[in-house]
Structures are given as structure tokens and as C-alpha cells.
Amino acid sequence: MADALIVVVLLLVAASATAAVAQRDPARQALVLSFLGTLLAALFTVLQAPDVGLSQLAVGSALTPLLIMLCVRKIRRRGRSKEDAR
Amino acid sequence: MNGWILAATVALGGGGAAALWGVTTGPPARRVIAQNLTTSAFCPALLLLAQGYGRPAYVDLALLLALLGPVGTLVFARLLSDDLSAQDASAWGLTWTAAVLGAAAVVALCVAVGPGRAMVKLLVIGVLLIGGNVIASRALAGGFRGVRGG
């Protein structure tokens, strides 16, 4: 019976990972990736590995989306300034 | 499987499915709101799991999520501000529903744990969760116009 929780979380992980790959825009991918990071932390907790879950939570919920969004913004700005120079 | 784990399953499955649906479809404003919903659905679920497994140490995960979840939402609110300013990204009904659900989970756990240091920790997590949720929702709705752009 306790396996039902693991099955639910595994199904959600599979669905959200597929959705993250299927998105076209990097900013939207970062949003789905943030959801996936938090969900993976929940999966690790359900599988009785809360230490891994703690580090996954720290990296996945805030740090990875922050890096991706900063990269997206920098690239957009660079493209914009090149267009202005022409 | 006891009642706590059953409640955590419902919170993880229902909240996770709703947040996944919202974060993959629709305009950017709705996606960011759904990303914020992730925190307010998973944090009570982690608290319920800690009680269900009988391991108070698991509460630390919920504490970290209550701290870092609003930070992640604020990152998106700041860096997606151009997209968000075009649309109305406020969902106060959802915000207060999530806050009431989180408060209900914290109160139920406080009753189960009884007075002591663990109860103080649970109350701190509840205050962090609801406060962060309200602050993040206000930032998404454009409540802090002074820190836009950048």
C-alpha cells in the first residue's frame, strides 16, 4: 500500500520531465525545471533519502532556474544590442 | 500506510498534477503562478510525510522548501517582469486557499506533536510558508513596482 505514494511521485516525475523537454522557450523550460527540481526532492524523501533531497531542494528549486534565467536575459540583451548596432 | 501518508499522497498527487498542468500550458503569468503553487502544495506534503514516517528530522526539508520556494518565485518575478507586466498575474483566491491548506496541515501536526520544541519548529515553518507565499503572490501581481526592471 505504501508503494502507491512512490508510484504517484514517479508518474509525476516522468510527466514533468517529458514536459520540460517538450517546451520550446528556455524561460518556460526553466519554470518546468524548477517544478521538476522540487518534485525530485519529494521523490528522494519518499525513497527515504532526505539528505539527497535537501541538496536537490537547494539546487533545483532556486539555483538552477536562476542560472538559466540569467543566461537567457544576457543572451537576449546581447542580441538586442547587436540589432541596434546594425 | 497510515492517515498522514495518505494525506501526503493526496497533497502531492493533487497539488503536483495541478501545478504541472498549470506550469506547462497557458500564458507566462499563469505558469509563474503554478510554479508558486508548487511550494505551497509540496511543503505541507513534506511535513505530513515526516509525521507519517515517524522521523522528525524530515521536517528540515519542509523548512528549506518554505525558505527557498518563494526565493525561486521571486527570481522569476524579477527576470520575467516584462512578460508579467503585460498581464494580470494575480490569483488571490488560489493564494489564500493554499495558505489555509498549509495552516490546516501545520495545526493538525501541532496537535499530533504536542507542546515542545518540535511544535515551535512547525509553527516557524508555517509562518515562513504562508508569509513567503503571500509575498511571492504580491510580487507576481506587481505589488512591488519599485524593484522592477534591472
TrEMBL record, chain A:
Domain MrpA C-terminal/MbhD: 11-77
A GO CC annotation given for this chain: plasma membrane
Entry coiled-coil feature ranges: none
Keyword hit for Transmembrane: yes
InterPro entries: MrpA_C/MbhD, Nuo/plastoQ_OxRdtase_6_NuoJ
Annotated keywords: Cell membrane, Membrane, Signal, Transmembrane, Transmembrane helix
Segments traversing the membrane: 53-72
Places the protein is found: Cell membrane
Signal peptide region: 1-19
Gene3D superfamilies listed in its UniProt record: NADH-ubiquinone/plastoquinone oxidoreductase chain 6, subunit NuoJ
Membrane-topology annotation of the record: Multi-pass membrane protein
Protein name, UniProt field: Putative MnhB-related membrane protein
Protein's organism: Streptomyces echinatus
From TrEMBL, chain B:
Record's keyword terms, sorted: Cell membrane, Membrane, Transmembrane, Transmembrane helix
Subcellular location: Cell membrane
TM annotation in the entry: 57-79, 91-113, 120-141
Membrane topology annotation: Multi-pass membrane protein
Family annotation (Pfam families): MrpF_PhaF (PF04066)
Major place of residence: membrane
Gene Ontology molecular function: any one: monoatomic ion transmembrane transporter activity
Gene Ontology cellular-component terms listed: plasma membrane
InterPro entries on file: MrpF/PhaF-like
Name the record gives this protein: Multisubunit Na+/H+ antiporter MnhF subunit
